[in-house]
Write a structure and sequence with these properties.
This protein has 2 domains: 93 residues, no CATH class; 67 residues. The protein is 67% helix and 5% strand. It is built from 8 helices and 2 strands; from the N terminus they run E-E-H-H-H-H-H-H-H-H. It starts with a strand and ends in a 16-residue tail after the last helix.
């Protein structure tokens, strides 16, 4: 099921996304469709594993930044109905591959912070060897993350059906 596309810096929401029960209830109950579209775009950009915001920002920064950009208020609070939509979307994304990808990305962030924090430290020979050995292992970690991203994309493609049982290219619009 193709739920949305991120094209040209904006989210294009497909009818399949609005067919999900919480999204459908929210969409149908909201008179301000522009605001509803903004809320759904926020949910996607903030939580979709392949969003440019998820790839480039930590969780604590990303949400406030997106709220500021989309709602013009970094302290915007989702209504209970909007939060139900976000929770349901999070449940849909909850696969083993994606859990592992998130965990690996979080671990990379802690390793990066460790190296950043150690810049000013005085280094002895053992410490230098340990840091260099750790840097060698980083390559394997990034290869694993790349593998996991491809696995999650493949998992999404397996869930995408089009007429004639043909495969949909992830970069083409349905």
């Amino acid at each position: 099921m193709k739920l949305f596309d991120i094209v040209g810096g904006s989210v294009s929401i497909h009818a399949d996304f609005l067919a999900l029960p919480p999204m459908k209830r929210y969409w149908e109950s909201t008179k301000d469709k522009q605001h509803a579209n903004n809320v759904l775009s926020f949910i996607i950009l903030c939580d979709y594993w392949d969003s440019p915001y998820v790839k480039s920002m930590n969780d604590d920064i990303r949400e406030g930044k997106l709220k500021e950009e989309i709602f013009k208020n970094k302290d915007y609070q989702l209504t209970p109905e909007e939060q139900v939509c976000r929770d349901e979307y999070a449940r849909l994304l909850d696969t083993r591959n994606l859990k592992m990808l998130k965990a690996m990305r979080n671990k990379i962030d802690t390793v990066s912070a460790y190296y950043e924090d150690s810049i000013g430290e005085e280094l002895d020979e053992k410490r230098i060897k340990d840091l260099l050995a750790g840097m060698e292992k980083v390559k394997a970690v990034f290869q694993t993350v790349d593998f996991l991203e491809k696995a999650v994309k493949a998992e999404e493609l397996d869930n995408t059906k089009i007429r004639g049982n043909a495969q949909l290219n992830p970069y083409e619009l349905a």
